[in-house]
Amino acid sequence: MTALLMVAMALFGSTTGAAARPPAASRSEPVTVSELPVPPTAPSPTTGSCMSATGCVSAVSAGGFLPDSRTVTATFTYAEGPSGSPYDGSQLVLVRTDGRVFPDGTPWKCVTCGVPAANREGVSGAFRYAQPFRDGRRVLSEAGVVDCSPYPLTDPRCTPATTHVRPVRWNVTPDGSGAGGTPVGLKLHPDNVHVGWNKIIRPTGPGDSFDEIAYFGRLRFNPHPTTGTPLTPRYDIVKVTGLYSADPALNGHFFRVDPRDPTRLRYEQQAAVGEFKNFTGDGGSLIGIGNARSVSLDHFATSLTTGKSRRLNSDPGYSDPATSSPDGKWTVVMDVRYRDRFLFMAGLPGVPPLVDMLPTGAAASAGYNIRTRRLFQPYLVDRNGLRDQQINACTTGPCSTSATGPGSAADSPFWAARADSYWSPDSTRIVYGQTYSSPGDCGPPFDLVACPPSGEPGGRTSRLMLAELTSREPLRLPPVRPVSDSVPWGTPYRPGDPDPKRPHLPAGRYTLDGTAAGRAVVDLVENANGIALARISVTYRNYSDDGRTFLNGTESAENAGTASSPVTFHTRLRVSGEHTGTRTTSEPGGYTVSPLSSLRGSYRPVGTMTTVLDGRVYAQPVSYS
User: Fold this and answer.
1) What span, in angstroms and rounded, lies between the C-alpha atoms of 397 and 391?
2) Can you point out the beta strands (E) in 163-295?
3) Contact between 422 and 64 (Cβ < 8 Å)
4) pLDDT tens-digit profile of 565-589?
5) In the chain, what is the greatest distance between 2 CA atoms, to the nearest angstrom?
6) From 57, 90, 404, 581, which residue has the greatest number of CB atoms within 10 Å?
7) CB neighbours of 159 closer than 8 A, spacing ≥ 6?
8) 82 Cβ contact list (under 8 Å, min separation 6)
9) What is the pLDDT of residue 38?
10) CA geometry: angle at 302 spanning 301 and 304, to 5°?
């Protein structure tokens, strides 16, 4: 661990005791971390300033492994080549991870550079989030499916002339009246037949809410489309199911009215989709975000067949992207726990996610970035919660980068992980991207020390990192068989259907019994038009789910009844027993934060929320705009 990281962790309070989070892993496995090679950095913002025969880059991001487990896909943003150079803009690239090179003598190969316009008609966007098919010939990306059939992507015969990029469309109406939308956050199912994605729903009128709805469907090649655009070969997503239900308990909130007593609530952990993130490696479940603990966002694996959800990680720090190992036994999550950034909200143990039936998730994540600065670091979590290890802590194996000088190490807090990570098919390697802090987003008041300029060659502010799990034997798993098109607990979708509105529990007063002791009295109030909850108030009386920590006090959350409205929390909670502590808000105004803060790159709450746990104080992050 570098001295700089130790200083930063001392500032950010990473010495949190076990009271605030699950016990640390009893053992860690050896991990070697290294930086992957990329072309030279563009020397200046002047066209033609790049003199490299294979182009210069301004940014790089990671993609998935090819079937050989030794070659990864990546997105390179080429810049400042000579006029007419094929090395320009966002491109899909292959990168060797084992020292081998391609025929031109470099460890990278640009697959899409120079692809003729006729071979990529209707394609737009970057080649980010690249996910290879197991045939080694195709890659799913944000821009579409890159296809070099019949040749493998690594084959010298895979040239720009033999490469095609096919757009992906969904919601194409049979009569052609709909052009078909481009899915957001598209993820390839391990069966290589199905995909999952999200649709952003933005408010368009009074009472409307900002929302994000997940979908599941079959990817089908359409060589001769007759409706939608473009009318050139493309991939259509068909047999679509919305991953939501008319049952409020099947929308990730975990509570339903007890059918035997309409005045009581029951807790059932199921359909924790929230924002869809990925699939488990065995293909049986999807990965989404939900709340098992009040205002604490964790990942859940939800069975495509039954809708039952299983919690994948449980730290009260905010986590977002998650990637499952090919055998489904391990997950890499991107997390900000090392800064203890969210313990002011989520650090008090034993609080059930009752106020989270209001759309508090986005509000709970406010401040997870600092403007454009990422704060994530990659953590390895096993299926049973017995291992919870920061991959790039550099304490169990050597770490190396191409950077020099202060702040250049693989574990530097100024270098943060970007979005998705990717496992090799044999489960021995993980690739992820890192990005460097922008000036003004690091240093005081956010950090103890000023952040120096990036030490990467040419001052590049992004890099590709490889983590090798050196004690593991390579796995040879059989291909995942195609799963059913049907998701029984979801809602079948037909092109042209209106956007759904999430159901909620009826207004009224309810009682939730603690699993071990006590109870909570819950009051639900709807907004004026009755389409959403506007206020949730809870009184806890010796409430306990584990029989060791007991909760008393009151809390509430309220907004204008839409997911995009600011949320105000009023909290006076106290725990006793195995742990002691409080969570309080400044009064009379409470703590108010906009759920759109993170999308707008700002964090300016009104009021304060503070948690004290076992004598330690956790305050909210520094505001910024």
Assistant:
1) 10
2) 164-166, 168-169, 184-188, 194-201, 211-222, 234-242, 255-257, 265-267, 276-279, 285-293
3) yes
4) 789 999 999 999 999 999 999 999 9
5) 75
6) 57
7) none
8) 47, 48, 50
9) 97
10) 130
Helix, strand, coil abundance in the chain, percent, nearest 5: 5, 40, 55
CA distance 597 to 74: 30
588: cis peptide before it, omega within 30°? yes
What distances in angstroms separate CA 249 from CA 215, 243, 262, 510, one per listed residue? Answer: 18, 13, 14, 15
Query: In the beta sheet, which residues pair with residue 71?
Result: 96
Residue with tokens 């009844």: 561
- For the chain, the straight-line distance linking the first and the last C-alpha, in angstroms and rounded, comes to 32
Percent residues over pLDDT 90 in the chain: 60
Q: Is the peptide bond preceding residue 474 cis, with omega within 30 degrees of 0?
A: no
> pLDDT tens digits for 71-101?
999 999 999 888 889 999 999 999 999 999 9
DSSP string of 69-98, one letter each residue: SSEEEEEEEE-SPPTT-S--EEEEEEEESS
Can you tell me the distance from the alpha carbon of 316 to that of 295, in angstroms, rounded to the nearest whole number? Answer: 9
Is residue 550 over pLDDT 60? yes
* 4-8, 241-245, 275-279, 301-305: least confident range: 4-8
Q: Residue 269, Cβ neighbours under 10 Å: how many? A: 16
Would you give the distance in Å from CA 51 to the centre of its chain? 37
* Contacting residues for 125 by C-beta, under 8 A, at least 6 apart: 90, 142, 143, 144, 182
Structure tokens at 155: 């084959």
If pLDDT is split at 50, 70 and 90, which confidence band does 5 have? very low
Q: Give residue 332's pLDDT.
A: 95
Measured CA distances, 73 to 107, 160, 162, 299 (Å): 12, 16, 18, 25
In terms of C-beta distances under 8 Å and separation of at least 24 residues, what long-range contacts does 408-413 make, across chains too? 408/454, 408/455, 408/456, 409/2, 409/4, 409/5, 410/33, 410/34, 410/35, 410/465, 411/1, 411/2, 411/5, 412/2, 412/4, 412/5, 413/4, 413/5, 413/8, 413/9, 413/12, 413/338, 413/339, 413/447
Radius of gyration of the chain (CA): 25
* 498 residue type, one letter: P
Spatial CB neighbours of 121, under 8 Å, sequence gap ≥ 6: 230, 232
Quick check: 37 and 439 in contact, CB under 8 A?
Answer: no
**DSSP states of 296-347:** EEEEEEEETTT-BEEE----SS-EEEEEE-TTSSEEEEEE-GGGTTTHHHH-
What is the Cβ-side half-sphere exposure of residue 532, based on CA atoms within 13 angstroms?
23
Cis peptide before 503 (omega within 30 of 0): no
Lowest average pLDDT, out of 273-282, 362-371, 456-465, goes to 362-371
The whole-angstrom separation of Cα 210 and Cα 562 is 7
Is residue 264 within 8 Å of 329, Cβ to Cβ? Answer: no
Give 500's contacts (C-beta < 8 A, 6+ positions apart): 213, 242, 244, 491
Which H or E run contains 363?
Answer: helix 361-364
**Closest Cα partner for 182 from 226, 128, 115?**
128
234-242/168-169 β-pairing: parallel
Q: Which residues pair with 335 in a beta bridge?
A: 319, 377
The model's pLDDT over 199-236, given as tens digits with 9 standing for 90+, comes to: 887 766 655 666 788 999 999 999 998 887 788 999 99
Q: Is 54 left (phi over 0), alpha (psi -120 to 50) or beta?
A: alpha
What number of CA atoms fall less than 13 Å from residue 465's CA on the CB side? 32
